[in-house]
Specification:
18 helices; 4-stranded antiparallel beta sheet; single chain; alpha+beta; 10 strands; two-stranded antiparallel ribbon; 586 residues
Length: 586
């Protein structure tokens, strides 16, 4: 919130939203008509605390909000919050003491504060008697009656971006107690992560931490099975190992569901509350898509007509989803399958191990860009589906894109398994993929944001030197808000439309889980590689969020969504595979 409690019980101002506008060429401004000055004045009248910062290439407006301003915005938004009597009631500022506070002692969560900020800054409309003439750098336009000022400035290209700001004090605390704390390698301050990043990011790290902790058990079994020469008892130990892994996986997901429910209860979140509030934040304009329920409301009170329209819209939605699934499936068969089989064949005929490592590295790099084509196609296709809610749309997108990545990750391994049944070659493929992916993915995941950030800083410096007409002199970035603005956003690799970098993180976990579960019989030591990767992934992802990227936009999510179904399908496939394995190999 705009004012938060520090360790001594005193309040401090925390700027949480940044607004970016370009510098104006003219030195003299008419403040009564200058749109930036008008925007600043309107922010102040809305009860916000405003601070202007002059950067090298742009100007920045930092915004904070007193608790009362956020409280009145929450009341206008009719946000429901739990009370001390055990009921969720609509928030009222006059009854603030009746509502339960967050685990960190604050009144509102980060997601609620962000919604309040959006309501305050985008709710500034022209309430005057006529349109207002505004100017910016010699350009003049009109602010119409009832029009949002910030949206108009965004449409005119004057407001370049609105983004959340890092809280430097909390960021450094999380860096010290979380990202750089390797003593307890699976323990995480989940409540602090929730308070700072929101529900969805905190749920991901809670799942990742529990997954990494539970992975130690099969990793120990795999090491024992790999190192100990069991001789004639090998055939007896493998079925025991398979059964242990299946039981481990089933128990893990059951215990995760319990932990997830406990976290939601501690964070005062219910499943019904998180259904649709985050849809506008996701980047995809879901509001332009009409659900069957919305269509029914438009028809009127004619019951027969309502039923007909509802059924027609429902069947149309099913047909659109079926069409999109067919398009994705055919694109895999026609485009990706030959590419995967060609790699598998080249790998088999290549003799030196060094060349095989190089081929695997080139392959893993190539498919990352190859599958982005299918991912972007999925994002476009899903816009034409009439899904019932935002959650269904997001799940549909996960299933489609995961289908692409599933094929590109496993078809080469299936080739060795089913056609040649060469366990020695299969084991080499798994070792090389796990080692290369462990090194390559962590390297790219942490180096690419830094390279993008460095390139943007270089671009700003180069542009500034060009304006001055001098190629000498050192240009320093002194303002923290400008450095944050130049950092990349936390977005999915398949496109900015998702605006959710957790898609890539969950995808990486799902692909890893599928590989170690489906091919555990060939290489039990794979669980040890996965355990090492997951422990590293916790700190790498934490460091990425805290130091290399902008602060993510908070999103409401009660569970890990469709990813849980994908994990459970892998468990079922693993059990089915081992059941068939007993009758074909033993």
């Amino acid at each position: 919130m705009g004012k938060e409690m520090n360790g001594q019980g005193e309040e401090r101002t925390a700027f949480e939203i940044g607004v970016v506008v370009p510098k104006q060429a003219g030195k003299e401004r008419d403040e009564s008509f200058d749109c930036v000055e008008v925007l600043v004045e309107e922010f102040k009248q809305a009860g916000l605390i405003v601070e202007k910062v002059i950067g090298i290439a742009d100007e920045f407006i930092k915004l904070a909000a007193p608790l009362e301003t956020l409280g009145r915005a929450a009341a206008e938004l009719q946000i429901k919050k739990p009370t001390h009597i055990g009921m969720d009631l609509q928030f009222e500022w006059d009854e603030v003491e009746a509502f339960v506070r967050q685990p960190d002692g604050s009144l509102f969560s980060w997601c609620e504060r962000f919604h309040c900020f959006n309501h305050l800054i985008y709710g500034i409309v022209n309430k005057r008697n006529s349109a207002v003439s505004l100017k910016f750098d010699g350009k003049e336009f009109h602010w119409e009656l009832g029009e949002s000022l910030l949206k108009r400035l965004e449409a005119e290209g004057i407001v370049k971006q609105v983004f959340p700001l890092h809280d430097e004090i909390k960021r450094k605390q999380l860096l010290r107690n979380w990202a750089l704390n390797w003593w307890d390698f699976t323990s995480q301050p989940v409540d602090d992560i929730y308070s700072y990043f929101g529900t969805k990011v905190a749920t991901y790290f809670a799942f990742l931490g529990m997954y990494a902790r539970w992975m130690l058990f099969p990793a120990a079994l795999g090491i024992m099975l790999q190192l100990v020469d069991l001789g004639s008892s090998q055939s007896m130990m493998l079925p025991i190992f398979f059964i242990s892994i299946i039981l481990w996986a089933v128990m893990f997901f059951q215990f995760w569901k319990r932990k997830n429910a406990a976290l939601l209860a501690r964070w005062q979140i219910s499943y019904s509350v998180v259904a649709d509030p985050g849809c506008k934040i996701l980047g995809l304009d879901w509001s332009s898509l009409q659900s069957p329920v919305e269509l029914v409301k438009k028809v009127g009170t004619d019951r027969a007509r309502e039923k007909e329209v509802f059924q027609r819209a429902e069947w149309f939605g099913h047909m659109m989803r079926f069409r999109n699934d067919v398009i994705i499936f055919l694109s895999i068969i026609c485009l990706q399958l030959p590419f995967e089989l060609a790699y598998a064949h080249l790998y088999e005929i290549t003799r030196p191990d060094a060349l095989k490592f190089g081929l695997t590295a080139i392959y893993l790099l190539a498919i990352q860009y190859f599958t982005k084509i299918g991912g972007k196609m999925s994002v476009k296709l899903i816009k034409y589906e009439n899904n019932e809610s935002t959650e269904y749309r997001a799940d549909s997108l996960v299933y489609k894109v995961f289908g692409l990545y599933f094929m590109q990750s496993y078809i080469g391994v299936f080739y060795h398994t089913l056609l040649h049944r060469d366990f020695k070659t299969l084991r080499q493929v798994l070792i090389q993929r796990l080692i290369v992916s462990l090194v390559l993915e962590n390297l790219m995941e942490n180096s690419l944001p830094y390279l993008k950030y460095s390139y943007r800083k270089y671009g700003v410096r180069h542009k500034k030197r060009h304006e001055k007409g001098s190629s000498t002199g050192k240009i320093q970035f002194t303002s923290r808000v400008e450095k944050e603005y130049l950092k990349p956003s936390y977005s999915a690799s398949i496109g900015e439309e998702l605006e959710d970098g957790l898609f890539d993180d969950f995808l990486e976990l799902a692909l890893q889980f599928g590989m170690i579960m489906m091919f555990a019989c060939a290489f039990p030591l794979a669980f040890a590689f996965a355990a090492l990767n997951n422990v590293t992934e916790i700190r790498a992802d934490a460091l990425k969020l805290l130091a290399m990227l902008k602060r993510p936009v908070p999103r409401a999510a009660a569970t890990i969504g469709a990813w849980l179904n994908i994990f459970q399908v892998f468990v079922f496939c693993f059990g089915l595979e081992k059941y068939c394995h007993q009758f074909t190999w033993l």
